[in-house]
Protein backbone atom coordinates (compact mmCIF):
# COMPACT_ATOMS: atom_id res chain seq x y z
CA UNK A 1 0.00 0.00 0.00
CA UNK A 2 1.24 3.49 -0.88
CA UNK A 3 2.51 5.72 1.89
CA UNK A 4 0.52 8.94 2.47
CA UNK A 5 2.42 12.24 2.62
CA UNK A 6 3.09 13.55 6.14
CA UNK A 7 0.18 15.36 7.74
CA UNK A 8 -2.57 13.91 5.45
CA UNK A 9 -4.98 11.38 6.83
CA UNK A 10 -6.87 8.74 4.86
CA UNK A 11 -10.13 10.58 5.58
CA UNK A 12 -8.78 13.84 4.13
CA UNK A 13 -7.55 12.03 1.00
CA UNK A 14 -10.93 10.29 0.54
CA UNK A 15 -12.75 13.64 0.96
CA UNK A 16 -10.48 15.29 -1.64
CA UNK A 17 -11.16 12.44 -4.10
CA UNK A 18 -14.95 12.73 -3.54
CA UNK A 19 -14.76 16.46 -4.17
CA UNK A 20 -12.81 15.99 -7.42
CA UNK A 21 -15.21 13.31 -8.64
CA UNK A 22 -18.27 15.44 -7.84
CA UNK A 23 -16.92 18.30 -9.94
CA UNK A 24 -16.46 16.01 -12.94
CA UNK A 25 -13.68 16.14 -15.48
CA UNK A 26 -12.41 19.60 -16.25
CA UNK A 27 -13.76 20.99 -19.51
CA UNK A 28 -11.30 20.67 -22.36
CA UNK A 29 -10.97 23.41 -24.92
CA UNK A 30 -12.87 22.51 -28.10
CA UNK A 31 -10.77 20.79 -30.76
CA UNK A 32 -10.83 22.69 -34.02
CA UNK A 33 -11.86 20.45 -36.90
CA UNK A 34 -9.30 21.14 -39.59
CA UNK A 35 -10.98 18.80 -42.01
CA UNK A 36 -9.30 15.93 -43.70
CA UNK A 37 -8.65 15.00 -47.27
CA UNK A 38 -8.41 11.63 -48.97
CA UNK A 39 -5.25 10.84 -50.90
CA UNK A 40 -4.56 7.95 -53.29
CA UNK A 41 -1.06 6.63 -52.64
CA UNK A 42 1.41 5.36 -55.20
CA UNK A 43 0.26 1.77 -54.65
CA UNK A 44 -3.40 2.70 -55.16
CA UNK A 45 -4.56 2.68 -51.52
CA UNK A 46 -6.65 5.63 -50.26
CA UNK A 47 -5.58 7.35 -47.04
CA UNK A 48 -7.30 10.00 -44.94
CA UNK A 49 -4.93 12.86 -44.02
CA UNK A 50 -5.00 16.22 -42.28
CA UNK A 51 -3.33 18.77 -44.59
CA UNK A 52 -1.72 20.75 -41.76
CA UNK A 53 -0.03 17.60 -40.44
CA UNK A 54 1.41 16.45 -43.78
CA UNK A 55 5.18 16.37 -44.01
CA UNK A 56 7.05 18.47 -46.56
CA UNK A 57 7.89 15.29 -48.48
CA UNK A 58 4.20 14.34 -48.76
CA UNK A 59 3.34 17.83 -50.01
CA UNK A 60 6.13 17.63 -52.59
CA UNK A 61 4.91 14.23 -53.79
CA UNK A 62 1.39 15.66 -54.16
CA UNK A 63 2.71 18.60 -56.21
CA UNK A 64 4.57 16.21 -58.48
CA UNK A 65 1.49 14.06 -59.00
CA UNK A 66 2.74 10.91 -57.25
CA UNK A 67 -0.11 11.29 -54.73
CA UNK A 68 -3.54 12.51 -55.80
CA UNK A 69 -6.40 13.93 -53.76
CA UNK A 70 -9.56 11.84 -54.29
CA UNK A 71 -13.05 11.45 -52.82
CA UNK A 72 -13.52 9.18 -49.78
CA UNK A 73 -14.55 6.29 -52.04
CA UNK A 74 -11.38 6.70 -54.15
CA UNK A 75 -13.13 8.26 -57.14
CA UNK A 76 -11.40 11.22 -58.84
CA UNK A 77 -11.92 14.52 -57.06
CA UNK A 78 -13.87 17.04 -59.09
CA UNK A 79 -12.86 20.57 -58.20
CA UNK A 80 -15.79 22.98 -57.88
CA UNK A 81 -15.93 25.27 -60.86
CA UNK A 82 -14.17 28.49 -60.00
CA UNK A 83 -15.56 31.87 -60.96
CA UNK A 84 -13.97 33.35 -64.04
CA UNK A 85 -10.88 35.42 -63.42
CA UNK A 86 -11.08 39.09 -64.34
CA UNK A 87 -9.71 39.88 -67.80
CA UNK A 88 -6.14 41.08 -67.87
CA UNK A 89 -5.10 39.31 -64.65
CA UNK A 90 -1.66 37.80 -64.22
CA UNK A 91 -0.93 34.13 -64.86
CA UNK A 92 -1.07 33.51 -61.11
CA UNK A 93 -4.57 34.97 -60.72
CA UNK A 94 -5.80 32.86 -63.61
CA UNK A 95 -4.64 29.71 -61.86
CA UNK A 96 -1.77 28.97 -64.24
CA UNK A 97 1.70 27.94 -63.13
CA UNK A 98 4.09 30.52 -64.61
CA UNK A 99 7.29 29.48 -66.36
CA UNK A 100 10.08 29.70 -63.75
CA UNK A 101 13.03 32.02 -64.12
CA UNK A 102 16.12 30.40 -65.65
CA UNK A 103 17.83 30.77 -62.28
CA UNK A 104 15.02 28.92 -60.43
CA UNK A 105 15.92 25.67 -58.64
CA UNK A 106 15.32 22.33 -60.36
CA UNK A 107 12.27 21.52 -58.18
CA UNK A 108 10.46 24.56 -59.64
CA UNK A 109 11.27 23.38 -63.17
CA UNK A 110 10.07 19.85 -62.35
CA UNK A 111 6.78 21.24 -61.01
CA UNK A 112 6.35 23.37 -64.15
CA UNK A 113 7.17 20.44 -66.46
CA UNK A 114 4.66 18.15 -64.72
CA UNK A 115 1.76 20.58 -64.25
CA UNK A 116 2.03 22.70 -67.40
CA UNK A 117 3.91 20.61 -69.95
CA UNK A 118 2.35 17.28 -68.98
CA UNK A 119 5.57 15.36 -68.35
CA UNK A 120 5.53 12.20 -66.28
CA UNK A 121 6.76 13.09 -62.75
CA UNK A 122 9.52 10.46 -62.80
CA UNK A 123 10.68 11.51 -66.26
CA UNK A 124 10.83 15.15 -65.14
CA UNK A 125 12.77 14.24 -61.98
CA UNK A 126 15.23 12.23 -64.06
CA UNK A 127 16.03 15.16 -66.35
CA UNK A 128 18.66 17.78 -65.64
CA UNK A 129 17.63 21.33 -64.85
CA UNK A 130 18.97 22.49 -68.24
CA UNK A 131 16.95 19.82 -70.10
CA UNK A 132 13.81 21.06 -68.33
CA UNK A 133 14.63 24.67 -69.23
CA UNK A 134 15.17 23.67 -72.88
CA UNK A 135 11.70 22.10 -73.23
CA UNK A 136 9.55 24.24 -75.53
CA UNK A 137 6.57 26.05 -74.00
CA UNK A 138 4.23 24.15 -76.35
CA UNK A 139 5.66 20.73 -75.39
CA UNK A 140 2.24 19.62 -74.07
CA UNK A 141 0.64 20.14 -77.51
CA UNK A 142 3.52 18.85 -79.65
CA UNK A 143 5.24 16.25 -77.52
CA UNK A 144 8.41 15.23 -79.22
CA UNK A 145 10.91 12.97 -77.59
CA UNK A 146 11.76 14.10 -74.08
CA UNK A 147 15.47 14.90 -73.68
CA UNK A 148 17.23 12.06 -71.92
CA UNK A 149 14.43 9.54 -72.67
CA UNK A 150 15.24 6.17 -74.21
CA UNK A 151 14.61 5.92 -77.94
CA UNK A 152 11.08 4.73 -78.64
CA UNK A 153 10.37 4.98 -74.93
CA UNK A 154 6.57 5.07 -74.73
CA UNK A 155 3.68 4.41 -77.05
CA UNK A 156 0.44 6.39 -76.71
CA UNK A 157 -0.92 4.25 -73.82
CA UNK A 158 2.12 5.09 -71.66
CA UNK A 159 3.51 1.54 -71.81
CA UNK A 160 7.30 1.62 -72.11
CA UNK A 161 9.03 -0.08 -75.02
CA UNK A 162 10.32 -3.57 -74.27
CA UNK A 163 13.91 -2.30 -74.48
CA UNK A 164 13.21 0.55 -72.02
CA UNK A 165 15.14 0.40 -68.72
CA UNK A 166 13.66 -1.42 -65.73
CA UNK A 167 13.06 1.94 -64.00
CA UNK A 168 10.61 2.91 -66.79
CA UNK A 169 8.70 -0.35 -66.26
CA UNK A 170 8.63 0.20 -62.50
CA UNK A 171 7.20 3.69 -63.03
CA UNK A 172 4.57 2.29 -65.42
CA UNK A 173 3.48 -0.44 -62.97
CA UNK A 174 3.27 2.08 -60.10
CA UNK A 175 1.36 4.60 -62.24
CA UNK A 176 -1.18 1.92 -63.15
CA UNK A 177 -1.60 1.13 -59.43
CA UNK A 178 -0.61 -2.52 -59.78
CA UNK A 179 2.19 -2.46 -57.18
CA UNK A 180 3.92 -0.05 -54.84
CA UNK A 181 7.36 1.19 -55.91
CA UNK A 182 9.08 -0.99 -53.29
CA UNK A 183 7.24 -4.13 -54.44
CA UNK A 184 7.82 -3.40 -58.14
CA UNK A 185 11.57 -3.00 -57.55
CA UNK A 186 11.69 -6.57 -56.21
CA UNK A 187 10.54 -7.99 -59.57
CA UNK A 188 12.66 -8.51 -62.67
CA UNK A 189 12.03 -6.42 -65.77
CA UNK A 190 10.57 -9.48 -67.54
CA UNK A 191 8.15 -10.06 -64.64
CA UNK A 192 6.99 -6.42 -64.83
CA UNK A 193 6.42 -6.70 -68.59
CA UNK A 194 4.42 -9.90 -68.07
CA UNK A 195 2.12 -8.13 -65.59
CA UNK A 196 0.76 -5.81 -68.26
CA UNK A 197 0.97 -8.09 -71.29
Task: Kindly describe this structure.
The structure is a single chain. Among the domains are: 37-70, no CATH class; 95-143, no CATH class; 155-197, no CATH class. Helix content is 34%, strand content 6%. The protein contains eight helices and three strands. It has a three-stranded antiparallel sheet with strand order 2-1-3, with no helix packed on it. A hairpin with a 5-residue loop joins strand 1 (37-40) and strand 2 (46-49). Helix 6 runs parallel beside helix 8. The longest helix is centred in the N-terminal third of the chain and has 14 residues, at 10-23. Mean pLDDT is 75; it is low at 81-85 and 150-154.
Gross morphology is elongated
Cα Rg: 27 Å
Give a short account of the largest sheet.
3 strands, antiparallel
User: How many angstroms separate the termini?
Assistant: 72 Å
Taking strands numbered 1, 2, ... along the chain, how are they ordered across the largest sheet? 2-1-3
Strand content: 5-15%
Helix content: 25-40%
Unreliable stretches, pLDDT < 50, 5 or more residues? 81-85, 150-154
Structural class: mainly alpha
Q: What count of helical segments does DSSP give?
A: 8
H/E element order: HEEHEHHHHHH
Oligomer: single chain
Strands, total number: 3
Q: Average the pLDDT over all residues and give the rounded result.
A: 75
Amino acid sequence: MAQLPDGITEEELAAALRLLRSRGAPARPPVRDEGTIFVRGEGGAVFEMTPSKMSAELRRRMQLGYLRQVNADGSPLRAPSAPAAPAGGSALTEGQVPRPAKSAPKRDWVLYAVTVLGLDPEAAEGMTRQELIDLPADHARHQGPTPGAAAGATPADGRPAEDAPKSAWIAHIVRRGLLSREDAEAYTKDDLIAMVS
